[in-house]
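Researcher: Please translate sequence to structure tokens.
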Amino acid sequence: MTRSDLVEELAARFSQLTHRDAEHAVKTLLDAMSDTLAAGNRIEIRGFGSFSTNRRPPRMGRNPRSGESVAIPEKRVTHFKPGKALREAVEAQPGALLKVMLSR
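Model: Translation complete:
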């Protein structure tokens, strides 16, 4: 599912929302989530899952073509841990992710 698919689904489910309003709602939500994770905070959506950032320490890698060692710098990566309701819904039937997202 893409961002535009999510906007379409939201506009279809809630007839009082125009397409522009649904697009604005999705953009606002995703921007708020991005800002929160960039600040190093955690996001928890009950029944869906939690997003957090993890630190990957610097390490030495290897260039597969030349075989020479390459220094890989430290980085922060986003981590998602699905909630119990999401795990159960995905196991029960495919396509249940959207239902879980929009039912909360």
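Researcher: Any highlights?
Model: The first helix runs from residue 3 to 13.
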